[in-house]
Amino acid sequence: MEINWPVFIVSVVTLVGVSAWTIFGTESATKVLGNVTGWIGQWFGWFYILLATVVVVFVLYVAFSRLGKLRLGPENSRPEFSTFSWVSMLFAAGIGTDLMFFAVAEPVTQYMQPPQTQPESIPAAEEATVWTIFHYGLTGWAMYALMGMALGYMAYRHKRPLAARSALYPIFGDRVNGWLGSVVDAAALLGSVFGLATTLGIGVVQINVGLDILFGVEQGIPAQVSLVALAIVVASISATTGVAKGIRILSQLNVGLAVALAAWVLFWGRTDYLLNALVMNVGDLVAGFPSMTADTMAFNDVSGWMNAWTLFFWAWWVAWASFVGMFLARISRGRTLRQFVLGTLTFPLMYIIMWISIFGNAALDRVINGGEDGNGDTGFANATIDSPELGFFTLIQDYPAATLVVGVATIVALLFYVTSADSGALVMANLTSKLPTPRVDAKAWNRIVWAVISGVLTIGMLLVGGVTALQSATLIMGLPFAIVMLFVMAGLMKALRQDVHRADSLEHSERNVVAGAGAHRYYLEKGPNWRDRLTHAFGQVSSKQAIEYLDRVAEPALRAVAEEMSKNGSGVNVEVVRGDLDVVDDLRQETKVYDRLKITAFEGANQFVYRIIAVNAPTPVYGGRMHAARDRSVRLEVHTTAGGTTYDVMGYSGNAIIHDYLNHFDRHQEYLRNQEETKADQ
C-alpha cells in the first residue's frame, strides 16, 4: 500500500517542530499556548458551543427521519458482528484512563468552584456531577457518530477510502483527491494526535500515582517518560507481531474490571445515597440538557471556566472524532444509520453515567460529609483541585481491601493507556496511507513512526505544563477540524438525500413496471419447467456446477448484451470481466467466493456494475434437525451498484440473465435521468 506523502510529510514536520519547541523552548511554549488559548476562547468559544449543538440535532435528525433506514453499506449488507459483540466494542471505545481521572476531579472542582452558583452549596452539589456527565456524554458521542456515519457511509456505500477527505466528496467531487483532501486529512490527523497526546498525558500522571502508592515510584517526569516509552514499545510490538488481537481482547476484559471497581465502590459506600444520586443526576441531565448545550454563559465572566471545561471537552471530542469515528465505522458496517446512531449515543452513555455518578457522588460525599468530625473533608477537595490525578486513588483508598483495589485500578488504567496508544498509532498510520479497502491496515513501520511521534509530543506537553498544557493544545488544534465538521455534515446530508432519491427513482420507475418484473417474470414464463425449479429449490449446487453454469450460460449472455450495448450505446463503454479481484464490501469477510462475473457500464460517478458471484452459503434444513456441515450449497448471487439484490440466478436461461441485467440497468438509467432533472430544477 502507498503512503499519502503530502499528509505524512506536513503532519510529521508540524508535530516534530511542535515537540522540539515544547521540549527545548518550554517557557516560550507555555506563554504562547496560554495566549492563544485565551484568544480562541474569546473569539471562537461561541463557535464550539454552536457546533456541538448543531451536531447533536443533525445526528438525531438522521436517526429519526427516513434517512435512518439507509445502511452503512449496500442495502443488502448485514452487520458483521452480533449485537452483543458490537455493544461490547462500543463500551470499550467509550472508556479510558481519562474517565477515571475526571470522574472524581471534575465533580469536586465543580462543587468547590462552580461557574454560576454559590460554591459548596446544595445547588453546586446537584450540578457538579451533572456537568461532568454532560461534558462526557451525548454531545461528544454525537460528534463520534457524525464522523463514524460519514466515514462508513462513504467507504462502504460509495467505495471511497476510509479517510476524512471522503466525507467531503459529495460537495467537492474529485477535488478531494488533490491538495484540498490532503489539507482535510492533515487537519484530522493533527487533531487526532493532540487528542491522543492529551489522553496519554492524563494516563501517565494517573498511573504514576497508582505506582507510587503500590511500589513507591516517585511521581514526576522520569517515571512518566518511562510510561510513555512503554506505550511506544507496546505499539511497536503490536505493529510487528501477532499480538494485536490479544491487546484488543485485553481491552474488552478491562471493561469488566472497570465495572467491578464501580460495583465495589457502590457496594461498600453509601449505596442508598449513590443510587438516589444516580437517578437524580439522570433527571437533572435530561431536564437541563437543552439549555446546557447552548449555554455560552454570555452574562457571566467565566471565560477561564469555559476554557478549562466545556470548550476543552468539545475541542477534545472534535480532535478525537476522526479517530473514534474510524473505529466505529469499521465495526458497524451493515447496520442502518438509525441503529448506528442510537447504539452509539446510548450504550457508551449508559456506562459513562454509571461510572461518573458512582465515583463523582462518592467523592462529593467525602467532601461534604467526610473528615474526622463528619463536617466535610476540604483537605481532600483542595488536594484534588491542585493535583487532579490524586483524586481517584485517594478516594478508593477509603474502601475495604484498599491495596487490592488500588492495584486493580492501576492495572485498569495501565491497560486502557497502552491500548489507547496502540490503537492511536494504527489509526494515524491509516490516515497517512492510501489503503485499498477499509479492512486493510497501514504498514508496520508507519505505525511505529506514529507511536514514537505521539509519545514524544506527550513528553513535550508534560514538560511545558502537564495536563493544563495538553488541554490548551487540544483547544487550539481542534479548531481547524471543527470547521471541517461543518462541511462533513453538509456532504453527508447531500449523499444521503441522493441515495434516498435513487431509491425513490427505482421504486417509481415506469420503465420497470412495463418490464413486468424483468427476469423473474421471464424465468417463470420461459425458464425450466416447474419440476426442475423444485429440484433446484431443495437441491444443492457444487462449486463445479456453478462455475460450469457461468462458463456455459451467464458469461456468454452478458458478453452478448455488452457487445450489443457497445454498438448502440452512443459511446457507452461496456466491459465484461471474469474473476475480477475487486473487493465486494457487501459480502461478509469470511464468505468463501469461488468465482465472479462482472459487467460494467459507464465510468466515474455514473458507473453501473452488475456482478454474479459464486458464494458458499447454508441451505435450509427441515424437520427440526440441526444444521450440519454438509448443509451448504453454492449460490450465484447478483450484486449491483445500488445493492439490495442478493437472489440466486442459478438455473436462469441466457435470455433470463440478459433481462435481469437490463432490468437493473434500466433502473440505473432512470435514476440518472431523475438526478439530471433535479439538478436542472435547482
UniProtKB/TrEMBL annotation:
GO molecular function: transmembrane transporter activity
Keyword match DNA repair: no
Gene Ontology cellular-component terms listed: plasma membrane
InterPro entries: BCCT_CS (IPR018093), BCCT_transptr (IPR000060)
UniProt family annotation: Belongs to the BCCT transporter (TC 2.A.15) family.
Superkingdom assignment: Bacteria
Matching Pfam families: BCCT
Membrane-spanning ranges: 7-24, 44-64, 84-105, 133-156, 176-209, 221-241, 253-271, 308-328, 340-360, 399-418, 448-467, 473-492
Record's subcellular location: Cell membrane
Membrane topology: Multi-pass membrane protein
Keywords: Cell membrane, Membrane, Transmembrane, Transmembrane helix, Transport
Name by which UniProt lists this protein: BCCT family transporter
